[in-house]
Structure formats: C-alpha cells, structure tokens
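Async update (no meeting this week)

Hi team, since we skipped the sync, here's where things stand on the single-chain job. The sequence we agreed to prioritize is pasted below, unchanged from the tracker. I ran it this morning and attached the output directly underneath so nobody has to dig for it. Comments welcome in thread, and please keep replies under the output.
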Amino acid sequence: MAYDKPFENKPNFGSLFATKTKTNPAQPDYWGDIKIDLSTVDTENGIAIVKLSGWKKKSEKGTTYLSLGVNNWKSDSENPQPKKQEIQDDDIEF
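Output:
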C-alpha cells in the first residue's frame, strides 16, 4: 500500500528501529522518535516524567521494531487513572 505522505507518529506514540550497520561504537543500537503531548504528562521541577510502554512489532516489509506509547496521566486528583489509547500503527510501511 502506498501513502501520499511520510508516516508521522500520533501524539504519545513513537517507534524504535535497530541500527542496521554501526560504523562507530558511539552510534546508538536503536533509533527513532516519539511525539509527546506535554499537557498529558506530569512534571517535577520542570522535568517531564514520562513512562513508556513498548510492543515488539513487524512491519509489512518484515522489519522488526518497537512501537512505543506514553502512559499519559497527571498525578492530580482530577485524572488519577491512565488514559487508555488504542494502538493503530500495524499498517505502517517502512
């Protein structure tokens, strides 16, 4: 399936991919990004506290990767429970 625009993570989701060839020991073993809605995470002294979840997945092209999700909740009394989000990135082409 072809897409008109490149894949972009939804808020509070991301992906990590294994580095195929490392040419320098300082290179990371995994790379990727995560888009975080900062209004959904707690902070302490200006530092965001982000709890992550990961799911091992395989793309349509056979690339294994980790799909990431932010367990987003604030510790205030109005919102004590984590918000559940449905993962919908199974059809991502890489």
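Quick observations from my side:
Residues 77-87 have pLDDT under 50 and may be disordered.
Residues 13-70 form one domain.
Reply here if anything looks off.
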